[in-house]
Amino acid sequence: MDRNRIWSYETTPTKPPPLFGSFFEGWSFGKGDIPLTPPPDDDELLEEEFVDADDTSFSSRTSSTDLHPHPQSSNSYSPPVTYQPRRKSSIQVGNQVMTKLLQEDNVKSAIEILQQALNHLDMAQQEEAEDKYAISKIYSKIIKSLCDPTISKIVDEMTPGDRKSDIHHSVLWRLFTKVVESGHVLQTDAHLAVVNTLVDKGQEPLALQAMYTLPRKEWDTSCYRTAVLLHLMQHPKQIIEAQKLLSDYGKPYLEIANPTAPNDLPPLRIAMPLMTEITENDQFKLWMLYQAALSRDNDYWTHEMQTFEAKRKEALTLLEEKENDTIDWALEQFNIETEKLKVDRKSTESDNTMIYIAMNNNQFEYAWQVYLAMADAVNESTPCIVMHLCWVAFRQIPIADVSYRTDWETRAWSVYSRFMCSEYLHPDQPEAPSFLHDILSIATHTPEVSVDKKTRYTKAMSIYNLLSRLHFDKLLCDDRVIEPLICTILYECKGTPMNIVSMCQKAFEIIDRKNEIVQRLPFDQTKQAPYSIIWGLLILCLKSGDETHFQKVLTYLLHNVLETNRACTLPSSILAPIQEFHDLYTCNRKTCYFQGYMFRYIRYTDDLDNTLPIDMNAFGFLSDDKNEDYNQQLLWRSNIREPQEPDIAMAILMGAALGEKLVQKQMYFSTKKAKALIRHARSLTFSSDP
């Protein structure tokens, strides 16, 4: 991609192809270099009348910097010039600079005035008489003028040699940031002129930052086009961010996460008044611009896309030719695969493969369009592939982009509604647990809404209740289905004590049903539960103080883990909540030998095992930093090495552990001590039963 100029989609064919119907058939694109924002027209600028401000109003223009110093009479005494810390009028400064910029001979004088004014100009606190619209208008014209190549060349000549290479010291960037930081909104064409100038100077990252300082409600088509191309100019390319803009383009409003509590408060809504007139044709043009820009220097993806589209076009042509073939119709009656059926089957397999390839290249929107173009030509592999596409796309979108996450969640539910309990997705199918894992994971991380504070829990339980009603036992005991359900419950395990107890009971209701089903299965189909899920269950017990369910977990660890595999080493993160539960609920006597057992150095025992201390808190999170700041806690992890651990850990931190003061202590862990603590704690829970 030519980084020296942001080009326009106006270089695409004058007659664009029909909308998404023939979207995959391949099109050529022009590669002209047409700037988005033309240079400002001097005639247009001259139409505006500017009032000259008195030069004496600018105290920053001292005699050393004044281009035309006034001679002083030798017969008169002049007191020394003192700086008056009086704020100058932004309108006066703007008019003074703009008037001189319009005069070719006074451009240098205007730049001198502007450079001096920037040192003291405070635009954040304006006098009541100053009109914010007037300030925006005058400074938009100044900034557009500074972006003009002729004036920009003069500015560069006036810039000291040691600062020419640093854009942050340029008068354009200093003035631009001064206006933006003061809360004023520049006119869109002036804003885009700054962005284009930064691109011309090879400052693509800075240009992208400048683009997003324009409030989103002010964005029009040119802004979206510029922003999409800027994301593709970054290194590495920001493909997901560009696709997010494609999704936002044309929406009457956007939703962003509430910065106060992004996971617990409803999102904020931003109106987009300039998007009300956007048509489907406009959206298609932006999509084609994105594809053309992306294919310029991505040879692998371009080759894969063009190869797929060529094969697809060939298959569609062949299927149309065979549509009314009577011989094929006769053979189909005897379940004989005809050439038409063979082409259709291979075309479906090619579509599924392309969805997977596009997903791996972060081409989520393209992959979704491939799925939509398949229509009814799907097979048993399609549901799992498309649902995984939705989950991967959803997971990679930042939490703040609520609108884009909601789009992919809506798509995931449409896939679930279409394929669940259909001929293409059987409960015994190997892909079925993965299909449910992905939709449940999306439900677990769905944004909160004001009408339903427990929307995550409601959505996840609707899927679980369906599986229960239909008696899909194989799915009800699959850990890929259980894990996101436990995550959902951990997210909701906060608030009132009644809600915490209710969540704990629901989690063990799911686990008890799983264990009941497993007991009916042949022995070779049973397997140990992941430590991550056991850890999550222990946290629920610790949060609710439920001794009955705590005893169930200890019994499982003792009989199904420790006794069946004596060489097994439990992760120390599991022992931390067990120790805390013991100290708080089952044996809170200070005389108990096992009080704080794992967090104390035990002579002889720890000497023989060469036990080294580990920094860990009561919930089982490791940390090398004593900082208890909330942002630091989000980086905590356990020492459980399983694929499910990151999701369980995040659910604990954002749910059950939210608001808890987790203090790091030194744990002296050994397998011998772990087994002794589990046996002791289990014996206490049994002795406390009535």
UniProtKB/TrEMBL annotation:
Residues 56-66 have a biased composition (Low complexity). Residues 71-81 have a biased composition (Polar residues). It comes from the Eukaryota. Residues 53-89 are annotated as: Disordered. This is Uncharacterized protein. It comes from Helicostylum pulchrum.
